[in-house]
């Protein structure tokens, strides 16, 4: 039997979370994120929307870009998410008191500084 994967729009008792909370997650993301040269050259800015599953054990799986910008931003978003996947296990989502896999959407903002 296949394990049901919950979506962030469906109610679960507790959504998955990055260790240390959203502030720690964005601090990590933006310390890792590098504005791609190609995006800089064409003054591209905006959000790359990533989606992944936080497994019942807190591991990140099936990371993908669901809305990209191009110009190297999509690849950079995936690179940052792969580093996150290597370094951190998330706090899993809970439903009916049990850890469950939950799909999570995370926008990464690219702005030229």
What does this structure look like?
The structure is a single chain. This protein has one domain (about 5-110): TolA/TonB C-terminal domain. It has helices at about 20-30, 35-40, 75-85, and strands at about 5, 45-55, 60-65, 95, 100, 100-110. The mean pLDDT is about 90. A four-stranded mixed sheet has the order 1-6-2-3, covered by helices on one side. It contains three helices and six strands.
Can you tell me the CATH class? Answer: Alpha Beta
> How is the CATH topology named?
TolA/TonB C-terminal domain
Number of domains as seen in the coordinates: 1
Radius of gyration, in Å, reads 15 Å
Give the oligomeric state of the chains in this entry, treating copies of one chain as homo and distinct chains as hetero. single chain
Helix content: 25-40%
Structural key phrases:
113 residues; alpha+beta; TolA/TonB C-terminal domain; 4-stranded mixed β-sheet; two-stranded antiparallel ribbon; 3 helices; 6 strands; 28% helix; elongated
């Amino acid at each position: 039997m296949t394990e049901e994967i919950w979506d962030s729009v469906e109610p679960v008792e507790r959504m998955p979370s990055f260790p240390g909370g959203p502030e720690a997650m964005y601090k990590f993301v933006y310390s890792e994120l590098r504005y791609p040269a190609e995006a800089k050259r064409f003054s591209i800015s905006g959000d790359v929307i990533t989606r992944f599953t936080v497994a019942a054990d807190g591991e990140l799986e099936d990371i993908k870009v669901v809305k990209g910008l191009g110009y190297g931003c999509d690849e950079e978003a995936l690179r940052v998410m792969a580093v996150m996947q290597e370094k951190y296990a998330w706090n899993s989502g809970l439903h009916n008191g049990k850890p469950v896999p939950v799909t999570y959407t995370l926008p990464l903002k690219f702005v030229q500084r």
